[in-house]
Specification:
The chain is mainly beta and 263 residues long. It is built from four helices and 13 strands.
Length: 263
């Protein structure tokens, strides 16, 4: 399978998954740090507290050529110790006026490496102690992770979009473009896929993320209503009505890199 085509499959999967389960995506990223994951990846760094709303809008291309637009929104937060709170909400039509229902909550404490996934329907909190710390910058931020003069594969172009001010915060933008030939696109026509993000060094998160694939649709994520005050402590605690179920693998719990947890 050509390398460019393999990359295109990754981007298609990203477009389908993003926005559906933000908390699940960050939960998975905490464990394996994949190249792409849905929603806003809230980095668990200290001394940069904030509370905000992550707005997502998706346009899916239907078989008849029309588009189906959907949206969702979720609270994201981080306290001064680096603990993060990341929600996943139901995806609803853009025309809907109701609030999307809460599907899940992801909480992570970098000081203990306790990773929690809360299900509001079953009131079960799945707990794992991570053996290794997650990324200090979003996994999809290729410019933050890659350095030096690299030779890109044919058909891939990377751009530095410079600086801008988004929601009163300085942000730096980057764009990656993948050109897929008519023989590899599956459509019989050349296809161009673009991914773009605007990263805030102050908040250590992407303030804007955009993805577009003419075959599947587009995605836009924007962080709004940012408050840099200390969030409510309740956002990082398991509510008393939840049952905590420890799913930590034995080998991870005994890893020398794991921080001991005192209960």
């Amino acid at each position: 399978m050509p390398k460019i085509f393999r990359l295109s499959i990754l981007f298609i999967g990203f477009c389908v998954a993003v926005g559906l389960h933000s908390a699940l995506a960050q939960d998975a990223a905490m464990s394996s740090a994949p190249a792409f994951n849905g929603g806003v990846f809230v980095t668990p760094v200290p001394n940069a507290p904030f509370y905000a709303l992550a707005m997502q809008e998706m346009a899916q291309i239907l078989s008849d050529g029309n588009s189906f637009r959907r949206k969702t929104s979720a609270v994201i937060a981080r306290d001064s110790t680096g603990r993060i709170h990341n929600e996943s909400h139901q995806v609803i039509p853009v025309s809907a006026t109701r609030e999307p229902a809460l599907l899940s909550i992801h909480i992570y404490d970098p000081n203990t490496r306790i990773n929690l996934f809360l299900n509001p329907y079953t009131h079960i909190a799945q707990e794992r102690i991570l053996a290794n710390p997650p990324s200090a910058s979003p996994p999809a931020n290729w410019a933050q992770h890659e350095s030096g003069n690299r030779t890109l594969p044919p058909g891939i172009r990377e751009e530095d979009l410079g600086s801008s001010v988004i929601e009163s915060f300085d942000a730096h933008g980057y764009r990656r473009t993948i050109a897929i030939s008519d023989k590899s696109s599956g459509t019989g026509k050349p296809v161009t896929i673009t991914d773009e993000y605007w990263y805030s060094e102050e908040l250590h998160i992407n303030l804007v993320t955009k993805h577009n694939d003419p075959r599947t649709g587009s995605l836009a994520i924007a962080v709004k209503n940012i408050n840099v005050g200390e969030p409510a402590v309740e956002l990082f605690d398991v509510p008393p009505e939840y049952k905590v179920v420890d799913l930590t693998p034995p080998d991870a719990a005994n890893s020398p890199n794991t921080v001991p947890v005192v209960r």
